[in-house]
Amino acid sequence: MKVGDIEFKNEFVMAPVKTGYNEGNGRVTERHLEFYDRRASHLGGIIPEPFYLDRGLRELPTQMGIDSDDRLDGLRELTGVIHQNGANAIAHLNHPGRMANPKIDGNFFVSSTDKACENGGATPKKMAQEDIKEAKSLFRDAAVRAEKAGFDLIELQFGHGYLVAQFLSPKVNDRDDNYGGSFVNRSRFGVEVLREVDAAVDVPIQIRVSGDEMIDGGIKLAETKKFARELVENGAEGIHVSAGTVCTTPPWYFQHMFTPKGKTWEMAKSLKPQLPVPVTTVGRINSRKDVDRIKEAEMADFLAIGRGLVADPDFVGKYTGKVEGRIRPCLACSDGCLGGVKSGSGLGCLMNPEVRDFEGLDSSETAKDVVVVGGGLAGMSAARTLDERGHNATLYEKDELGGVFNLAHLPPGKDPLQRGIDYFVEEIKAREIDTIKDKAEADDLKDYDHAVIATGARPVFPNIDGLEDYLWAEVLQEENMPEEKKVMVIGGGLVGVETAKALAHNENRVILVELLPEVGGNMIGLEKAQLLKSLKNRDNVEITTETDIKRVEDNEVFASRAGEELHWEGVEEFVIVTGMESHNPIDQSELSVPSTVIGDAKEPAKAEDAIESGYEAAKQI
Fold first, then answer.
1. Closest of 548, 542, 559 to residue 516, by C-alpha
2. Which of 26, 420, 522, 576 is 20 to 30 A from 295, comparing alpha carbons?
3. Prediction pTM value
């Protein structure tokens, strides 16, 4: 398989995923080298995270740069690590235009327009001819550095709502010169960038495009096909098809679980017969079935896998039979990857705590008998990791494995989360970890070498005068879900918002009440925005914040907000989701063996934290 004259050992490449592993100076770090080294051995190619072309054009303060020759030594180390694993190195070059991060001091903002992204961002300068010339030079100089650093191919980012797409998109481009208006004019800037880069380097160039921006008035597939043909006529030797725009349709850009799987694959399939160059598809390729479907339908020549390789570095090795074991699934939740990068802690993964653990697991020198009490995510993660290290794990769980996470997949659009439970349950079974379906008492633990307490958390219910009959999040279960009723949801955090959405989806009239100034709590912005948008667009949902419920009398509710008295009548059902508290029924002072408390039993937190705490505890035993 080839792109231009570059041979690939197989059709699998790693898509560019931002890592946040830089220290603020743009240089390659040991964390980068270890991350890509761990993932390169079974791939045909690696596209590292997007490189910034100028320090004033960063999307992240922790992004890798290719803006100076000072970067070359580190970049050569990076290509060396990729090459020693038999993979090709592909440099992804991106000018964000108006989508440069406005929170980074020193950033500047230019675009085809002088209008900011409607979902937030800085107001850009509408580019004059000199600005256009400078932007083309930035692409060219970065490509020259990439070739000097040993990259085998260049990938130019012309999609996802970044600068070239800001020229191509009729939704954004409002120019009346020879770079605006007609398709020929709107495509001119991208073609000129390609020509300038192509004249400066000898390595093949492929272009990443959005097959469809998924917005009214934006780039559509028909224009993308015309653009792709024009790019090939001007030297492009590969087309990489994604979707969405970082400005307006981030769920498509990030391929979040809320978007339908396979849409980008169909776009690639539509382009493929029209182009004489290889086409790459991308987007939520995170299971064997996904790969089989793409290959059997001949949707693309290459498959770019991003977060699937974050969740399981051996995804391709396992698919091809070179590595044993089941594929650890990416859930398309964006919690650990996007959430980790935006928080400043760096790329992580809800399902894979090893992403941030570059030391890795070692085998225990002495096999110990370890009992894990509680079979939620933390407990199953601990048991699995203990077994992997060579210990003898026993797992106590009186109910269903998975704990409260068994409810997580029930809200609309969250069904991929079930794959997380399925993976851990299958691992417990395949590893033949002894599972005792009973409640563990302190006396049951005395014959083990170590006890891990993973008994989770339980809901906290406020004392509301007159309110005696209510449900918790178990209302999401089919047998508990009301229909066509007036339901009040008390608590507007993550669980409350998702519960309200599910109730509204089932044709209930929903009142969502939150004591704090806003709903959604500490949800990642991408998911929070989509959930709140879906609620606010429904006429059967009422959201009230800064609201304190005083009492309930039969079906009437009395509350206050900023000194104003509120009153609702006819409320037929109540759901309370106001938080969780740790639940640890085992008195550690009574234990005769060493013990470790993990997960929600230690401190209620997110699923990612639970899995990581189980992993870390097992690593220390």
1. 548
2. 420
3. 0.95
